[in-house]
Known about the structure:
Number of strands: 15
Mean pLDDT: 90
CATH class of the largest domain: Alpha Beta
Structural class: alpha/beta
Distance between the termini: 74 Å
CATH topology of the largest domain: Rossmann fold
Pfam families: Peripla_BP_6
Strand content: 15-25%
Family: Belongs to the leucine-binding protein family.
Signal peptide: 1-28
Low-confidence stretches: 1-30
Strand order of the largest sheet: 7-6-8-9-10-14-15
CATH architecture of the largest domain: 3-Layer(aba) Sandwich
Keywords: Signal
Protein name: Branched-chain amino acid transport system substrate-binding protein
Number of helices: 13
Largest sheet: 7 strands, mixed
Amino acid sequence: MFILSRQVLKLGATALFASVLSVASAVAQTPSAIKIAVIEGFSGANANGGEAAFRNFVWAVERVNARGGVKLPASAGGNQPLQLERFDSKGQTEEALSALRSAIDGGARVILQGNSSGVAASLIDAINKHNERDPARRVLFLNYAAVLPELTNEKCSFWHFRFDAHSDMRMAALMDVLKDDKALKSVYIIGQDYSFGQAVAREARRQLGVLRPDVQVVGDELHPLGRVKDFLPYATKIKASGAGAVITGNFGNDLSLLIKAAKDVGFDGKFYTFYGNALGAPAAIGDAGIGKVVAVADWLPNVQTAASEAFYKSFRVRYPKPEDDYVHMRMQLLVEALAQSLEASGKQGGAGANGAIDMVAVAAQLERASVTFSGQTGTMRAADHQFQQTLVVGMMERQGTPGVKFDVEGSGYGFRVVKTVPAAAAEQATSCKMMRP
Length: 437
């Protein structure tokens, strides 16, 4: 019995050793991931916007990984999946900068952020300094929603790429609709009191002066970002001004609460918005928004093409809850462009001696990337790293009316596309003087 036990133990030890070797081999053959850090406000006043962005990126990364990940040569580690990591900035600059340091220390090579132009500006400065000090750990900053124009003008950076249309481009698309509203005689401009809100107000005045000098600006004010809980005083002033329309770059709760307050005081004018097509705004305003709330976007669910409809339906399968219904085409294009650029740089030898990805080579590919997905095409402009794509303007209508097959967030209201602005028409000049490594 004892001899038998020794033989069993010996066989068991041999099997265990083989198992350990097998596991070690599997670990060694498992491709390392390309880490992507999403630095966003996942708590605080605009947490819903942060969560919406993260859902879009999860979906996009799942698609890339399902087809085998990023296809790189053996010298760069072979095929590698994309790995998303989230860092809560709480919407604060200092928190975002702290998150940036943690992300880089944790191995992130790509940084995603968007829901604050002030935070984006600070990240650009910090990344510029980091990449100069530590070339072995360079990172790229892919911006999906921070639309202050100066970020791709005087503050442009080789390491920063913007995939959203900046605020002047968005304003021009809105004005393309507003200028044809011959009944409009006056507007009220309101926005958040920081760099982005200030830029929107300036550009609204400038473009009105060019396109509709007959329209009077009867109000122009800024309010604290994300801190106003009661917009009734602002809505009361808007109604008292006699304005026929409101122009606002507000987003998140600052937009939905403003629109709800305007409804409560009986304001009957239009809202020309950058972000009025989701995050609670349509449900907040209800029937009062039909034919009145205008929103500009890179894409809307009711863009009437087969590819667009299939894209939207597949998103709703992935995220079936009505409150999760905020899909961004540009975020899908961003991830596709990143994967494309990583693969292209790898084919051209974009890896260091130790197999690390050369982020200079990736950036060089990304700045001339052209990508098409679900019928939407976008091209990165190398001169300033501003993505060029078609923009659309939609009018809020009840679901089921002509052109409104899909509603927003289960609200019963959707946006009918009333204007399509081709990329060439949306493009604007840049003052960027790009410094390349």
